[in-house]
Amino acid sequence: MIIDIHTHNTTPELTPSLLEAAGRNGVQTVIFLGAVLRFGYSPDERQIREINDDTIATVKKYPEECYGFCFANPTHDPDFTLQEIDRCVTGHGFKGVKLEVALNCRSERLEPIMKKLEELEIPLLHHSWYKSVSKYPEESDPSDIAFLGRRFPRVKIVMAHLAGCGYR
């Protein structure tokens, strides 16, 4: 089985053609992560909910072809973030959590999220990039992801974008 685990459902109108292209290329399942940059690099709680609502609608419309990951921003109140993860995972069958660049993954603020992922036995997909220029202030790189993995060895972590500026 081929799974595309890193697809951003940026506009609902594109979803049918995206799923059709996936099928044409032998991809049986698409994991939608949400339009994570729609509101910039640190969306607020209302915006997080809107992004996840769009993914919920996509998954409901195409239940045979796709799953969702809950987009979260660890700079928010942990109660909100954990409730949003519960809403998406328990309430709507999402299969994991997606984090972007709002906060470096070495931050202690990820602890409640990681403990929740461990409890739910679902993976984290975390943006990561080695960059030579234009690194966002809180952007994680692969060494940060490795640090997070050592802190939470029972959580499966999918690291996206190993080498933005080439192999190291």
Topology:
Blueprint: E1 3-7, H1 15-24, E2 29-32, H2 45-61, E3 66-71, H3 78-92, E4 96-99, H4 111-120, E5 124-127, H5 142-151, E6 157-160
Parallel strand pairs: 1-2, 2-3, 3-4, 4-5, 5-6
Poorly predicted tracts of residues: none
Q: How would a textbook summarize the main sheet?
A: 6 strands, parallel
Helix content: 25-40%
Outline type: globular
What distance lies between the first and last C-alpha atoms, to the nearest angstrom? 30 Å
Global mean pLDDT:
93
Strand order of the largest sheet: 1-2-3-4-5-6
Tell me the number of strands: 6
Strand content: 15-25%
- Write the element-wise H/E pattern from the N-terminal end onward: EHEHEHEHEHE
Question: What class do helices, strands and sheet pairing give?
Answer: alpha/beta
Give a structural overview:
- By secondary structure, the protein is of the alpha/beta class.
- It is built from 5 helices and 6 strands; from the N terminus they run βαβαβαβαβαβ.
- The chain has helices spanning 15-24, 45-61, 78-92, 111-120, 142-151; strands at residues 3-7, 29-32, 66-71, 96-99, 124-127, 157-160.
- Strands 1-2-3-4-5-6 form a 6-stranded parallel beta sheet.
- The protein starts with a strand and ends in an 8-residue tail after the last strand.
- The model has no long low-confidence stretch (mean pLDDT 93).
Labels describing this entry:
168 residues, alpha/beta, six-stranded parallel β-sheet, 5 helices, 16% strand, globular
Quick synopsis:
It contains five helices and six strands; from the N terminus they run E-H-E-H-E-H-E-H-E-H-E.
